[in-house]
Design goal:
mainly beta, Jelly Rolls, 8-stranded antiparallel beta sheet, 5-stranded antiparallel beta sheet, 28% strand, globular, binds magnesium ion
Length: 252
Amino acid sequence: MKKLLLLAMSLMALQTWAQKPEDTEVYQPVPPKVSTGKVFSDAPSDALILFDGKNLDQWVSVKDKSKPAQWTIDNGAFTVKKGTGNIETKKAFLNYQLHLEWKIPANITGKGQARGNSGLFLASTGGGDDGYELQILDNYNNDTYVNGQAGSIYKQFVPLANANKKPGEWQTYDVIWTAPTFNTDGSIKTPARVTVLFNGVLVQNNAVLTGPTQYIGAPSYKKAHGACPIKLQDHGDPSEPISFRNIWIREL
Ligand code: MG
């Protein structure tokens, strides 16, 4: 009996050890394609402007938080400067409504996850890619696992529709984020919830998150956290870098 138990335990350990990124990729069903119209985007009077087209004063480099964000500002927008790493807001947030616009360059190349990959981390819980990622990717005409396409909560929630605009066109995310709360012992009390409009189309409807984004294995709430910065991803793939503009937030 004891031997059997030991065998079962080592099999379980082996299973965890043998997990691969592919294990949590979902391919079916594919979200329906929806064409979208013009999207309202002006900041309301009570919003905090996180990027007004002029400077990255509200942002720091995640690699070295004492340094300003290194990404390139041009013509009212800013663009990922590959290799400089992720950037995040100086300020930390709990519950909020966020508006952000992003653009895949018209000359984008690559496929799958290597085609305009970035990400909006709704709460950055640490360095690197730690946090809850709303995927940014070109999926106008580019297949990948559907829980990793634009509008997905990466590897957790497939978007309800594919509302991608063509590369070269500005696109919008409007997000309503409810931060998770934790018990004093660090265990999860109320999970994070998120609603997302992608180019005005509902793609996440009050999704209840099972934890921060995890590349390999199942997500779970391992560590308690309070208010967190919002982070943008400098993904390591070699495709042309993507741009952002008109970012504002309303704390709730
Ligand atoms: Mg990403």
